[in-house]
Amino acid sequence: MGRSLFIQQIIDSAKLKQRSIVLPEGNDERVREAANTINQEGIATITLLGSEQAITEAFSSKGWSLEGITVIDPETSGKLQEYADAFYELRKAKGIKPEQALEAVKQANYFGMMIVQAGEADGLVSGAVHSTADTVRPALQIIKAAKRGATVSSFFLECVNDVPYIFSDCGLVEDPDADQLSQIAVQSANSAIQFGIPPMTAMLSYSTYGSASSPLVEKVQEATKLAKQRVADECPGKGIIVDGELQLDAAIVPEVAAKKAPESPLGGEARVLIFPDLNAGNISYKIVERMAGAEAFGPLLQGLNKPVNDLSRGCSVEDIVGVAAITVLQAF
Questions:
Q1: Are 325 and 9 in contact (CB under 8 A)?
Q2: How confident is the model at residue 314 (pLDDT cuts 50, 70, 90)?
Q3: Which of 106, 161, 185, 197 is most deeply buried (CB count within 10 A of its CB)?
Q4: pTM (2 decimals)?
C-alpha cells in the first residue's frame, strides 16, 4: 500500500523543519531500512543506536550510505557516564543508586531519552522491538509529563480513504476514569489541530444521549461534561467541539446522526474519536487498519515535555518513516 496523501503531506512538512530524531532500535532490520529512507528523503537527521559494527555492515551489504546518520553504541559511548550521572540526579529521590543509573542508560531506550532530554535531539521513536511499557517508562522518568500530575495518553493517526482521524486512547491508559477521559479528549483535540485535522471530538459509548443507562455510560457522560469545561477553561477559541455520549455511527455518519442525535454539534462529522477504555480503543484501531486497509500510525504519545512516540511491534518500514515525520512536527 502506498502512502496516503495525508501522510505524504506530513512528510513534506517534516522535510522543511530539519529536526533530529533518535531511533534506539538500530539492531532491527526494519528500523535500519527506515533510517535509510528518512535519511535519503531528507525527512530528519537520524541518530541510530545499536552495535556500530552490525549497523555499518548491514548498511554496506545493502549499498546504503551512512553519511548524515549518527551511529552510537550506548555501551561504548563517550557520553555514557555523563548520561548516567544526569539520570541519577533525576531519579535519586526515588532511591536509585549510581551503579543502577549506569546500567539503566546502557539500555538503548534510556540512552536515547537522555539524548533528547539533553537537547541533542528533538524526539525519539521506539517500539518496533520494545513493548509500549519499555518505551513509556523511560519517557516518564526522563522526559516527564508536561504538566505535573497530568495524564500522559496516546493516540493513533488513522487514515481511512485519505481522510485522517484521531483514535484515542488506543495504547496507554487502560481504564481511564471520567477526569482522565476528559484530559485524553482535550489532548487529542489539540493533537488534531497540530496535524490540521478538524477538532470535532466524539466521546464514544454504546449509548447515544442516554439511550442506555449503566455506570459505563455514566462515566462517558461525566467525562463529556468535564471535557467541555476543560475546553472552555484551557483552550477557548481553538474551535474544539466535544460531544457525547455517542455511538460510533451517530458520531461519524451524518445520516445516522440526523436520526439519533439531531441536536449534536458534530453533525455526524467527528474526526477525533475518544474510546471509553483501552479494550475498545485498541481493538477498534486494529479492526480499521486490518479489515478496512487504513493507514495507522502510533501509538503517538501526548502530554510529555518532548515528543516520544511508540510503534506497534508489527510495524512496517513505512510505519516507522511516518511516525518519525509525525514526531518532527510534534517538536514544534
A1: no
A2: confident
A3: 185
A4: 0.87
Q: Same CATH fold, 151-296 and 1-144+304-332?
A: yes
Q: Which CATH architecture has domain 1-144+304-332?
A: 3-Layer(aba) Sandwich (3.40)
- Supply the pLDDT for residue 146: 82
Three cell numbers written together for 185: 479528549
CA–CA distance, 142 with 86 (Å, rounded to integer)? 10
121-146 residue pLDDT tens: 999 999 999 988 899 999 999 998 88
In the CATH hierarchy, which fold is given to the domain comprising 151-296? Rossmann fold (3.40.50)
| CA–CA dist 300, 236 (Å, integer) | 24
* Half-sphere exposure (Cβ direction) of 241: Cα atoms closer than 13 Å: 13
Cβ atoms of 221 and 245 within 8 Å: the answer is: yes
Q: What is the mean pLDDT of residues 267-296?
A: 94
Sign of CA dihedral 135, 101, 140, 193: negative
Which cell goes with 313? Answer: 511491534
Mean pLDDT of 45-73: 96
Cell of 312: 506497534
Cell triple for residue 201?
471530538
CA 87 vs. chain centroid, Å, equals: 24
271 touches 280 (CB < 8 A): no
Structure confidence at residue 1 as a pLDDT band (50, 70, 90):
low
